[in-house]
Design a protein that fits this description.
Elements lengths: L8 E4 L6 E9 L3 H7 L1 E3 L11 E10 L3 E10 L10 E8 L1 H13 L3 E2 L4 H8 L5 H12 L3 H11 L2 H25 L10 H21 L1 E2 H5 L3 E5 L6 H9 L17 E6 L4 E6 L9 H16 L2 E7 L6 H14 L4 E6 L7 H8 L8 E2 L8 H12 L5 H4 L2 E2 L1 H20 L8 H19 L5 H8 L7
Parallel strand pairs: 1-7, 8-15, 9-11, 9-12, 12-13, 13-14
Antiparallel strand pairs: 1-2, 2-6, 3-4, 4-5, 5-6, 10-11
Length: 467
């Protein structure tokens, strides 16, 4: 990846494809001038008048006398995301017109930006440290509230503050050790091994707690699995289609049409889950039915939550419904939610609900997959049950694999230092200093103070162009 910051770069910063609005971004020494060359405002400002940020309303000018209503945002260095002069054109998202405008700016001297180059410049210009730059990528790719909060915590600098505090204390400890090395021929020591052990102990413990209390991005990326189970023809496939808004499952009046596990993503008021439609449970008539029911039972037991669907239409007797619920308790006694389906098929649902109440769990939810009644309430209930642990991300650091690796390596160095300090002599003082320096290097790699271009290329290549 090319990390020079001397050129002015340009890219479409919003999503590709037609849209009501699009954002075209420039950064670099000539960003403000190039942006104003393709923009006309009734009151054209002088660049010297732009002290930090300025918003202008006017028109983007394209070849062949084409003009588009647009807004221009000017950010003067160093008061911008990248730390350089930065300009953003906000205009209608017509792909052909945006392509034409990009070509015009490139012909005027701007270079097409590479993936993540805007954030890379923010890092290189000390607007963000490396852990914050990685948080930008996680923020863009977040699929749940937990991931958003985890990324926001990193972006806020939580990891940087932890590592800086540790690095400052380690640097002070290393200074004592290196001062002692300078005077070894005079037998002058600024701290005894016992004193060094005492100063090292809280640092080891702090780093160990940070590793123990943090979670991985893989944990946040996990989507909880919700299994739909119940007797044949209870309406599981209909409910799957109604909740997702897409006809993915085959729905017929014939029982047993679902023969395999069908997994679909389901958007909830907070985050997402994977909804798994299963074969109907009940009497087994052939080998295939036995296999499909075995799959359904296994999925139900492995999922985070089981939705057990009960058909409460008028044609179902109370004894049949009681048998369905007995099957549920055999299948999974806890972590389940009973959903009463087909309430639209009940001529007098309030009266039937009252008759069924003694046999039903108090937290069951009535719905109609056919009419959509109760589905919003069901989604809200699922979100509350599945995403209560999302608060963990607002209190605990979520670390990338690279960040955890560097912290673990630093901890190993501190453990080695502790071992070297077990004697009451300073015979191994050079090795002690080496381990402390290595620990500092690993902490520096977390924030990007010490990092190779190969690592930077690997991190920023994950970004999309324009970010």
């Amino acid at each position: 990846m090319y990390f020079s910051t001397d050129e002015t770069i340009v890219a479409l910063s919003s999503a590709l494809g037609p849209a009501a609005r699009a954002i075209l971004r420039l950064s670099g020494p000539h960003a403000l001038i190039l942006a104003q060359n393709v923009f006309h405002s009734i009151k054209q400002p002088q660049l010297d008048d732009c002290t930090t940020a300025q918003r202008l309303t006017g028109y983007a000018r394209l070849p062949h006398a084409i003009s588009l209503p647009a807004e221009l945002y000017l950010f003067k260095a160093p008061h911008s995301y990248t730390g350089q002069h930065l300009a953003e054109l906000h205009l209608p998202g017509s792909p052909p017109l945006l392509h034409c405008l990009l070509e015009t700016l490139q012909q005027a001297g701007a270079r097409p930006a590479q993936p993540g180059e805007f954030t890379a410049r923010a890092f290189l210009n000390h607007r963000l440290d490396l852990s914050q730059a990685e948080a930008v990528a996680e923020l863009i790719n977040a699929r749940s509230d937990a991931q958003l909060r985890g990324a926001e915590r990193l972006l806020d600098g939580a990891l940087r503050r932890h590592t800086k505090t540790l690095a400052d204390a380690l640097a002070n400890l290393l200074a004592l050790v290196e001062a002692a090395i300078d005077f070894t021929d005079q037998d002058i020591y600024f701290a005894s091994p016992r004193q060094l052990r005492q100063q090292l102990a809280p640092l080891r413990n702090t780093l160990q707690r940070l590793l123990n209390d943090s979670i991985s991005w893989q944990q946040l990326n996990h989507l909880p699995q919700v299994v739909l189970a119940g007797p044949a023809n209870a309406g599981k496939s209909s409910l799957t289609n109604a909740l997702t808004g897409i006809d993915r499952s085959i729905v017929t009046a014939l029982a047993g049409t679902t023969r395999d596990l069908l997994t679909v993503p389901l958007a909830l008021p907070a985050g997402e889950c994977l909804l798994i439609d299963t074969a109907g449970l009940g009497q087994v008539n052939d080998i295939l039915a036995g296999t499909t029911q075995s799959l359904a039972r296994h999925a139900a037991q492995q999922s985070e939550l089981l939705i057990y669907l009960v058909d409460v239409a008028d044609s179902r007797t109370i004894d049949q419904i009681k048998n369905d619920l007995n099957l549920l308790h055999q299948l999974r006694p806890i972590d389940h939610l009973v959903v009463l389906n087909k309430i639209d098929a009940c001529a007098n649902w309030p009266h039937r609900k009252q008759n069924l109440a003694p046999h039903l769990p108090p937290d069951c939810l009535p719905v109609s997959a056919a009419t959509g009644q109760g589905l919003d309430h069901l989604k809200t209930n699922l979100a509350q049950r599945l995403h209560t642990t999302d608060n963990l991300a607002s209190e605990t650091l979520a670390l990338t694999t690279r960040q955890r690796h560097e912290l673990q390596a630093a901890h190993v160095c501190l453990e080695q230092t502790h071992t070297l300090l077990q004697t009451d002599t300073m015979d191994q003082i050079e090795l002690i200093a080496l381990e402390l320096r290595n620990a500092l290097d690993h902490l520096g790699a977390v924030s990007g103070a010490l990092v190779t271009e190969e690592v930077l290329s690997r991190i920023f290549s994950r970004f999309c162009i324009g970010k």
